[in-house]
Write a sequence for this structure.
């Protein structure tokens, strides 16, 4: 009799606790889905438990999407109404999703936020998320392109400092090439399957790239032509290798002195650290890009990186915003940097010793104050990846004259932008 | 009489019921998408249309007209034809040669050879392409090492616009000849042995036997293989996609790759669909020609 009573009490109390927790879960826990790309997905998962601890009512489900298929997956998800609550978006993709009306205006959230304020970010980076003066994304981590160079080769070529102007860059490359007479060595690596330098130098020269409200190509303009000519000169004078397959491994090539300068981004800092070991460990560095005249050094570079966006279909926008705020706190940004070495978007995080003491990130900090966005239209990726690269390669291989390449480039770009022209014209009619 | 008619129609309805699941699946997953794609190919369906369906414009045959003026399309067509013209005869020759060798009575451990020749066909293309990229490496690749032994200058296989396509041909022939080989072996085994015996009695040599017995009797097999090979090769995609991304100088850009780029990278669905239908008609025409040629020669 006593035993059965005891069992009854135990069962009763357990069921009480069980029902209590059940009802609590049902009432309060909201599940938000967050899509992240590549290794970011793997590492952001490590930050989630802390967020869930602070916000017991919210659970975050992180889904990994490979970078190469990310855009396709997101657009397909949008087409089939299966978008996540929030996601990481390369900031050049923000215009596409904003035009699709897939992501929401964040202005109201920002106005009330104590954590996310415009002043806390690099202006050029923040600007990439603003379309027609509406903010659609919050910078998560940032990247840009600058110079990775061999300090020892620079010294042998007579340069103690990295080049400050276009003329210095050219002179340095000439002198570097002269260090290896008769050898198959080059000064700079400007692969034509990377459009970035071909756009950066244009922007440095003040070229607008597109004209008429971004509905026509402006690559034949004098300013762009000057920049394009400047870059092609490096290929024509054999200061840069022409084929891209000659350099199957940029790290090995950098180590072998195959070239002394490579314009690249922060993702390569750790790769180069891995390759440049032993005697070579202190023989390389990073520097901001030169400017055209050298007076306004450093010259501008691209505002890259990833932003955090909220999808229109999300039913938990407030909860998602909390997660975005959490990821934007300086302390979280520092933690994320130490996990993955993605450079933090929040300026305050750069004061932390783990970043401030890294000699290679200093140049990036300087460069981030001189970054600009590429034209914010959905077609930009196509223009840059397919057209700019295509004609850069043709000109670099001397298969086409510079004038011919640029006027063809404009023609192709105009064709791509035909729909955009039509949309803008038909809007103004009504 | 009435009864028979009734039962006939009954069995035919029953038959329709039996094939219905398969037919419905084909209808939903094949015919409807194909028809939809055909309609889309007459519109300018693009990323704006995904956001707002009202921006879709019916453009008639403009996509097709634009296609004929698009140098990249012609280049991709030229590249693909070059690839097919180079790879198809080579593939048939290699697979027929391998089949003849494997069918020889002198050979021992046939199944081991058959298996090892067939192996590339069932290996994942991506893995194969990555390995071949190493083989083709201008400095460290094993192919250039062997060429160096016979005194040839190193070739920048995937980096030189003139060599990139031949390099892809070599790889894809190596990858796919095993399949045709197996079909050729089956064809060879169907040739009655007494024909060869009779020919031997008449004093025919090996070459005459091959020319007058093997080849004519293999004609249907060869036709079948050449059709699937050409159709398959026209859809060249993964090899250049992984090894060269269409470069250098677009020398390995294939039609399917161009279609994929336009459709899934830049979301020009309308334009991309028109490329798909042009490719479909090319393959259709080639197949019809092959059947006609076969009919004439068999007469």
């Amino acid at each position: 009799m006593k035993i059965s009573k005891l069992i009854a009490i135990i069962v009763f109390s357990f069921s009480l606790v069980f029902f209590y927790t059940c009802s609590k879960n049902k009432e309060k826990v909201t599940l938000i889905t967050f899509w992240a790309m590549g290794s970011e997905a793997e590492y952001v998962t490590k930050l989630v438990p802390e967020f869930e601890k602070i916000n017991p009512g919210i659970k975050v489900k992180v889904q990994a999407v490979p970078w190469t298929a990310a855009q396709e997956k997101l657009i397909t998800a949008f087409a089939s109404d299966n978008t996540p609550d929030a996601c990481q978006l390369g900031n050049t993709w923000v215009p596409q999703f904003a035009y699709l009306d897939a992501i929401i205006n964040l202005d109201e959230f920002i106005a009330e936020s104590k954590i996310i304020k415009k002043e806390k970010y690099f202006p050029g980076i923040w600007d990439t998320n603003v379309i027609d003066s509406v903010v659609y994304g919050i910078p998560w981590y940032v990247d840009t392109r600058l110079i990775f160079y061999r300090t020892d080769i620079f010294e042998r070529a007579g340069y103690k400092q990295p080049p400050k102007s276009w003329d210095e860059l050219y002179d340095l490359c000439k002198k570097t090439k002269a260090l290896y007479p008769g050898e198959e060595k080059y000064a700079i690596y400007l692969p034509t399957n990377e459009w970035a330098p071909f756009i950066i130098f244009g922007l440095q020269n003040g070229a607008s790239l597109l004209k008429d409200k971004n509905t026509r190509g402006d690559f034949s303009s004098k300013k762009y032509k000057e920049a394009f000519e400047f870059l092609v000169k490096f290929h024509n004078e054999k200061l840069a290798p022409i084929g891209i397959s000659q350099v199957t491994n940029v790290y090995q090539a950098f180590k072998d002195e195959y070239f002394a300068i490579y314009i690249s981004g922060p993702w390569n800092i750790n790769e180069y650290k891995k390759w440049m070991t032993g005697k070579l460990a202190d023989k390389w560095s990073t520097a901001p890009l030169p400017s055209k005249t050298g007076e306004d050094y450093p010259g501008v570079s691209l505002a890259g990186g990833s932003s955090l966006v909220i999808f229109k279909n999300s039913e938990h926008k407030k909860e998602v915003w909390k997660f975005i705020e959490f990821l934007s706190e300086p302390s979280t940004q520092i933690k994320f940097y130490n996990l993955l070495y993605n450079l933090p978007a929040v300026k305050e995080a750069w004061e932390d010793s783990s970043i401030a003491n890294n000699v290679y990130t200093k140049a990036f900090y300087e460069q981030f104050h001189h970054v600009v966005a590429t034209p914010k239209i959905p077609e930009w990726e196509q223009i840059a990846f397919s057209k700019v690269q295509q004609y850069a390669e043709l000109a670099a291989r001397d298969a086409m004259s510079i004038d011919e390449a640029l006027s063809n480039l404009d023609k192709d770009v105009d064709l791509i932008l035909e729909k955009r022209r039509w949309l803008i014209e038909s809007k103004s009619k009504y | 009489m009435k009864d028979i008619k009734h039962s006939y129609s009954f069995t035919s309805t029953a038959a329709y019921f039996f094939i219905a699941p398969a037919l419905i699946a084909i209808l939903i997953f094949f015919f409807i998408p194909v028809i939809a794609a055909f309609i889309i190919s007459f519109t300018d369906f693009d990323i704006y249309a995904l956001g707002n369906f009202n921006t879709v414009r019916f453009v008639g045959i403009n996509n097709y007209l634009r296609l004929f003026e698009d140098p990249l399309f012609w280049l991709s067509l030229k590249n693909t034809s070059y690839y097919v013209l180079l790879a198809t005869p080579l593939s048939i020759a290699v697979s027929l040669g391998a089949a003849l060798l494997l069918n020889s009575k002198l050979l021992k451990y046939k199944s081991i050879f058959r298996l090892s020749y067939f192996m590339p066909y069932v290996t994942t293309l991506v893995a194969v392409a990555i390995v071949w990229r190493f083989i083709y490496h201008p400095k460290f690749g094993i192919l250039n090492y062997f060429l160096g032994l016979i005194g040839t200058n190193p070739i920048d296989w995937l980096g030189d616009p003139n060599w990139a396509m031949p390099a892809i041909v070599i790889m894809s022939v190596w990858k796919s000849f095993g399949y045709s080989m197996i079909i050729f072996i089956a064809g060879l085994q169907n040739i009655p042995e007494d024909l060869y015996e009779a020919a031997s009695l008449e004093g025919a040599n090996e070459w005459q036997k091959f020319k007058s017995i093997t080849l004519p009797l293999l004609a249907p097999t060869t036709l079948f293989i050449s059709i699937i090979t050409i159709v398959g090769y026209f859809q060249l995609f993964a090899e250049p996609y992984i090894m060269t991304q269409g470069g250098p100088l677009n020398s390995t850009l294939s039609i399917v790759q161009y279609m994929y780029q336009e459709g899934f990278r830049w979301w020009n669905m309308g334009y991309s669909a028109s490329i798909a239908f042009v490719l479909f008609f090319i393959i259709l025409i080639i197949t019809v020609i092959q059947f006609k040629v076969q009919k004439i020669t068999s007469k």
Summary: Chain B touches chain A at residues 44, 46-48, 50-52, 55, 57, 137-138, 156, 158-160, 245, 247-250, 261, 264-267 (CB under 8 Å). The two ends of chain B are 43 Å apart (CA to CA). Chain B has two domains: 12-55, 64-298.
